[in-house]
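User: Please fill in residues for this 195-position structure.
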């Protein structure tokens, strides 16, 4: 029912789509947004969520800011231009985005500095069988939500701390089903992109 709600209304009061993926994500070492409160500055981690906002301000020298949402909260990503070049498709098209990077806490703002991004949309797509997809959500209230302003731009120097704790393994989740054998309809969860 959650998938059907998101397909038609772009939201659900019954739960969050990421909660349905939590067992598989947890087994791969992917932390939740609420888990990030226990991660120390500079530590590597792996996280995944719905890409709800993508921003590329003209004043940010090619840096892209992404907001991910899971069942426990939101997480801010910083994608430096070099990483953006390597993962452009994932940044621009993923509905469910996995990220590995280093946590940065600066001036009361917490970010994940991305060094690897993986499109995990296929995990959610596999649950959307026989779901009718609403194509036009221009008049939906969720489209009126604006991105929160960024109060601190992290520095590349601060993002280079090392850690001994291994991050999760997104590669084990990146096996997309063969499109010739699946009949699942595409689940569309719109993000709010500002360039």
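Assistant: Residues filled in for all 195 positions:
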């Amino acid at each position: 029912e959650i998938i059907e709600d998101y397909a038609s209304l772009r939201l659900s009061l019954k739960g969050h789509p990421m909660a349905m993926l939590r067992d598989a994500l947890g087994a791969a070492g992917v932390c939740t947004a609420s888990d990030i409160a226990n991660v120390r500055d500079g530590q590597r981690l792996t996280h995944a969520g719905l890409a709800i906002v993508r921003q590329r301000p003209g004043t940010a020298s090619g840096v892209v800011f992404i907001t991910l949402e899971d069942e426990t909260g939101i997480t801010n990503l910083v994608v430096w231009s070099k990483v953006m070049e390597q993962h452009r498709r994932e940044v621009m098209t993923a509905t469910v985005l996995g990220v590995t990077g280093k946590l940065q806490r600066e001036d009361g703002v917490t970010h994940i500095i991305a060094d690897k991004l993986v499109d995990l949309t296929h995990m959610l797509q596999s649950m959307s069988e026989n779901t009718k997809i609403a194509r036009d959500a221009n008049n939906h209230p969720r489209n009126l939500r604006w991105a929160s302003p960024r109060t601190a731009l992290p520095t590349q120097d601060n993002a280079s701390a090392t850690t001994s704790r291994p991050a999760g393994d997104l590669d084990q989740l990146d096996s997309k089903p063969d499109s010739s054998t699946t009949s699942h309809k595409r689940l569309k969860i719109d993000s709010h992109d500002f360039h």
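For context: The longest strand covers residues 44-55.
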